[in-house]
Amino acid sequence: MDINRLQWMMQMQSVSSFITSQQKNQGQALQGLSFQDLFQAAVSRTLASGVSPVQTSTDSLYLNGAGRIPASPVPTAPAQPASMGKTESPPSLDGLISKASSRYGVDERLIRSVIQTESNFDADVVSHAGAQGLMQLMPATARGLGVENPFDPEQNIMGGTKYLKQMLDRYNDDPSLALAAYNAGPGNVDKFGGIPPFRETENYVSKVLGRV
Q1: pLDDT digits over 73-110, tens only?
Q2: How far is CA 157 from the centre of its chain?
């Protein structure tokens, strides 16, 4: 039998017993009272005794074991995907990018986009392959470009821009091929006669040019 129904039956029995005893004890004094009056008096007596009223099945859906309404969870905003659009470089790097652009004749926007894609402007990052700094120069490449400290922002940007310029000159100022060579090496670009069919390289070229 449902526990709520059992409790209800027990309370009704208590009400009935109370009414019967009151009628016996008070006789004619209760004749003028309606059943509703007697019922209300019985309920008041039950509550005064500390017995809780029957909890309905609906209440049980909203009350926890301690009899408290649990706090509603705070809704959280859905996570927003990382922006793939253009991002402003930190002010501390703007002057270096402008200086490298003037020295090697490479568009500032292209330099900035390469830096963002390679390192997201983190001068201390090292890739799993060992590429270092803002423009992710491999140690051997950095040495060949005259970069003594690839973690120095100025040296890294100057060296990376110099290498990017070499690739642009090699592929007749075609930014797609220059970027593919920057990412996968000129040997692979020459081998395949264009952007190598590597997903990483294809995504890299598309991402850099999409931010220019």
Answers
A1: 444 444 333 445 666 788 889 999 999 999 999 999 99
A2: 32
pTM: 0.60
What span, in angstroms and rounded, lies between the C-alpha atoms of 94 and 102? 12
Beta bridge partners of 137: 132
96-135: b or e for each residue (b if 16 or more CB lie within 10 Å)? bbeebbeebebebebbbbbbbbbbebebeeeeeeebbbbb
Give catalytic status of residue 148 as yes or no: no
| 84 contacts: CB under 8 Å, gap ≥ 6 | 207, 210, 211
Report the b/e string of 64-92 with b at 16+ CB within 10 A: eeeeeeeeeeeeeeeeeeeeeeeeebeee
Q: Which stretch of DSSP H or E encloses residue 155?
A: helix 153-170
Burial class (CB in 10 A: 0-12, 13-18, 19+), 168: buried
Angstrom distance (rounded) from CA 194 to CA 212: 21
Q: Which two tokens stand for residue 73?
A: 């969870």
Of 196, 104, 193, 192, the closest CA to residue 182 belongs to 196
The DSSP annotation for 91-107 comes to HHHHHHHHHHHHHHT--
Residues whose CB falls within 8 Å of the CB of residue 140, separated by 6 or more in sequence, listed in order: none
Given 88, 108, 118, 148, which residue is catalytic? 118
